[in-house]
Amino acid sequence: MAAFVLPELYKESSDITYVGAQYMLEKYKNLIKWKEDASIFEFGVGDGSHSRQLLWPLFPRKYKEFIATDLSKTMVDFAKNNQSASRAKICNFDITCENVPYDYRSRFDNIFSIFTMMLVRNPEQAFKNIHTMLKSNGQTFNIFPLTLPTDDIYMKLSHHAKWGKYDHKVMVTPYSSQSHPQECYEKALRDAGFRNYHYMIQNFCYMFKNEKEWKDFMFSVNAVAGNIPAEEIEEYKEYFFELIDKEVLLEDNKTFDSEGRKCRFVKLRLSLLEAIKTRD
Ligand SMILES: C[S@@+](CC[C@H](N)C(=O)[O-])C[C@H]1O[C@@H](n2cnc3c(N)ncnc32)[C@H](O)[C@@H]1O
């Protein structure tokens, strides 16, 4: 399970996900179907900042409730202290759980996720649960990269003699080995019972402001970091960045800015997956 463990570092360095989500929301927020007294749910809320900055301003004024959840207890605890004057109920929840709690069934008008679906190990189960949790005519709205430029790195780490025992496959996006990942997501959605949906893709490119932001972000989204013993973490970091430096974004890593500094780019294919539950 890709439960994040470094909320503070993620909060400080995750401008890339803020800018990416903002870009997609600007383009597609008109597709969101609101009800004045909406029951709203979010999974993968992380440290809570992007939910607060990007989603909350879109909520109807008199919404009924907002439940914000994350797989990681560390992120949930951090998010609880990171929300000012919030009406959000923040709690621990795995969107791929085997049995959806009874009081979550047919309860929500809107279910959101931002930069989370690509880390959900079992999208088929996630979409089934989302379908179960939505009311009739309820809508799910998800922004996420189709695959990640780090997929090969984590696959390589999962076979490494020393680091392979820490389950790096959790960080590999679910359909990275498929030639048409979008079709896999759409199939999972249809199999879960969704008939009415839109799947849009936009190319997105982010340039990190400096080496520190790039390194902090890359490490903050490494869910495996929490499993590495403290005495080995520096050695692990060194190897991790060596790999990333060599193998990710090679072409762009050759680019330098006007002052001769290395520019770090990430290119993503951002998905917007919006679906409505048309019947129970
Ligand atoms: C990249 S962060 C995105 C956080 C936040 N939405 C944002 O935009 O900054 C992905 C989050 O998804 C959570 N996550 C991963 N798998 C999950 C699952 N199966 N159910 C719920 N949350 C999950 C991780 O713990 C992490 O906090």
TrEMBL record:
Origin superkingdom: Eukaryota
Instruction: Output one GO MF annotation.
Output: S-adenosylmethionine-dependent methyltransferase activity
Cite the Methyltransferase type domain residue spans from the record: 42-139
One Pfam family assigned to this protein is Methyltransf_11
Q: Which PANTHER family match?
A: TRANS-ACONITATE 2-METHYLTRANSFERASE (PTHR43861:SF1), TRANS-ACONITATE 2-METHYLTRANSFERASE-RELATED (PTHR43861)
Q: What is this protein called?
A: Methyltransferase type 11 domain-containing protein
Organism field: Psylliodes chrysocephalus
